[in-house]
Specification:
Largest sheet: 5 strands, mixed
CATH architecture: 2-Layer Sandwich
Helix content: 40-55%
Number of strands: 7
CATH topology: Transcription Regulator spoIIAA
CATH superfamily: STAS domain
Strand order of the largest sheet: 1-2-4-6-7
Number of domains: 1
Distance between the termini: 31 Å
Structural class: alpha/beta
Strand content: 15-25%
CATH class: Alpha Beta
Number of helices: 4
């Protein structure tokens, strides 16, 4: 089973080894079933496919409830425990306000673009690797 076989409904996958980029295709994460499935797909990336370096592009998302934010917090903690990292990019002003209100803009690693997120991820990864 490879990442290429994974067909999530909430995002598409772009591989930039060792980084995985998940690009949201849904504009709203607001219904409980929708959010549970979203959380399950994120967990599958980590648990079933061994993803430790994840960029999540929320550029298409215009509505994010507190339950969806909760899934992101769980994902962040899970990756951190595995010496990985989550970088979120492409958030609009509404999502930025949600993160600021919840005081999460300093909790999450945030960038404007996928390229900036991948660059930040690669820098963080090289900082954690011993020199060879």
């Amino acid at each position: 089973m490879t990442l290429h076989d994974f067909k999530p409904v909430h995002f598409t996958i772009e591989e930039r080894p060792p980084v995985v980029v998940a690009i949201m295709v849904r504009s709203s994460l607001s219904e409980e079933d929708n959010i549970e499935e979203f959380g399950s797909e994120l967990n599958q990336l980590v648990d079933n496919y061994g993803c430790r370096w994840l960029v999540l592009d929320l550029g298409q998302v215009s509505l994010l409830t507190s339950s969806a934010v909760g899934k992101l917090i769980v994902l962040h903690r899970c990756l951190h425990r595995r010496n990985g990292r989550l970088v979120i990019c492409g958030i609009n002003s509404v999502i930025t306000d949600v993160f600021q209100t919840a005081k999460l803009n300093d909790y999450f690693h945030l960038t404007s673009t996928v390229d900036q997120a991948v660059d930040q991820m690669m820098q963080a990864k090289s900082d954690t690797q011993p020199n060879s």
